[in-house]
Amino acid sequence: MLDKGGAERRRDRPHLRVAAETDGAETAERLLHRTALGEEDAFAGLYDLMSPRVYGLCLRVLRDPAQAEEVTQEVLIEVWRTATRFDQQRGTARAWVTTIAHRRAVDRVRSAQAAGDRERRAAAGAAEPEYDAVAEAAASRLEHRQVRRCLKTLTELQRRAVTLAYYGGHTYRQVATLLEAAVPTVKSRIRDGLIKLRDCLEAAR
Amino acid sequence: MNPEVHTLIGAYALDAVDEEDRRLVDRHLEECASCEQEAAELREAAARLADVTVAEPPSGLRERVLAEARRTRQEAPPDRGPDPEGPAARSAERLLRPRPLPRLRRALAAAALAVVIAFAGGAVTWAVMQQYGEAETSGSDRLAAVLEAEDAEVVTEDAPGGGRVTVVSSASLDRAVVMVSGLAGVGEDRAYQLWLVNDEGQVSAGVMEPGASSATMVVDGIAEADVMGVTEEPAGGSESPTLPMVAGVDMTA
């Protein structure tokens, strides 16, 4: 499924011609559309397609398998409940689901922080492990390679700010504290870094 | 385009903002179609960061999720309306059309209309720029709804330090339009912040752009509020208000 050279084959299934993520996205959009119509089998298909992504991200942000499992369930039920609101004009189904997942995981982190849970770790300066540790552990699938390669086009500060914010679930102010950098600097590096990531990923298509 | 708020789009796309910042950006995006597109693109890029964290979920989860879905009602789709011109064009037209504002007292109506006209200009640009999709409720729609509400109440208060604050509130909509104009100038590192205040305490109702001394803001959830307070805070706002208040508008009248 990761064979970019598959363009000549499978003329009967045109969505397989391009890179894997496009294939996945199209399938996800169709499944999400049918889910919006209340089709349970489509939702089951969507679960199979998206749950490793949702669970993996929740696990990465929360670091606690039990909480990750809980939040994954919340996320997928939200996907079921609000599938009617998905608008294909505004983005891919994959991004839509991932955005819900990240938001929920981060909300859980922040409410735990408000309760004082994770603060000791932050206070102890236990910065999130470098992104490389995550990426190295991941299989070298095509999209992984793209993300890894594109992250390498960012400056050190951009990359650390973006990954701390996303995988660590930190606010940009917290990232500034962790990196001992000025808040406005971190704010603009995050945006610059994300723009660079976007441009690199788009070029890779 | 406000560069301070616009820079936040990156952090916003990563969910690396607090609620206050998120509201600031949401409002900014409502007024700026190209910014909304940038935010959507950055969200797509951010979502790719989850490519490298994929992990197999516990085996029992699938059945639990599918079972819960079976007993969960799905939401109705958003009302996209039959109007081919879309809600932005519709609201612009409505804002540009002169119409009676029955509950506005004459002097205040003039000030309110000046703001509405300024907003209408923005809405027209926005409608032209809008390339795809439909905002569920644009800022100007929300503003117009308050001004048009049957139960709209207008209160205005002169700030002792100069400038004035006008609040048009609708109890039925549980929403107010707050027009702040000509407050004392502040540096780029300071900002005026609005608060909904009652006996229990206060909640932030939004932070103005750094250095700005005038703004129009739509505030939701006003039911419990007795006073709309304005304070001067560091740029980005504070968790709790710095006293004394710059202005306080009585909303119980």
Describe this structure in words.
The complex is a heterodimer of chains A (205) and B (253). Chain A has 10 helices and no strands. Chain A has 205 residues and is mostly helical. The longest helix of chain A has 23 residues, at 40-62. The radius of gyration of chain A is 18 Å and the shape is globular. Residues 1-26 and 121-140 of chain A have low confidence and may be disordered. By secondary structure, chain B is α+β, with helices and mostly antiparallel strands. Chain B contains 7 helices and 8 strands. Chain B has helices at 3-13, 19-30, 33-48, 61-70, 86-96, 106-129, 139-148, and strands at residues 153-158, 164-170, 175-181, 190-198, 201-207, 215-220, 227-234, 247-250. In chain B, the strands form 2 sheets. Chain B has a 4-stranded antiparallel β-sheet with strand order 1-2-3-6, with helices on one face. Residues 83-137 of chain B have low confidence and may be disordered. The interface between A and B is large, with 74 and 47 residues.
Strand content of chain A: under 5%
Largest sheet of chain B: 4 strands, antiparallel
> What would the average pLDDT of chain A be, to the nearest integer?
80
Give the oligomeric state: heterodimer
Largest interface: A-B, 74 and 47 residues
Number-wise, the strands of chain B total 8
Helix/strand order of chain A, N-terminal first: HHHHHHHHHH
Mean pLDDT of chain B: 76
Q: What is the CA–CA distance across the termini of chain A?
A: 15 Å
> Number of helical segments of chain A?
10
Strand order of the largest sheet of chain B: 1-2-3-6
Low-confidence stretches of chain A: 1-26, 121-140
Instruction: Figure out the total of helices of chain B.
Output: 7
Instruction: Report the biggest beta sheet of chain A as strand number plus sense, adding barrel if it closes.
Output: none
Into which percentage range does the β-strand content of chain B fall?
A: 15-25%
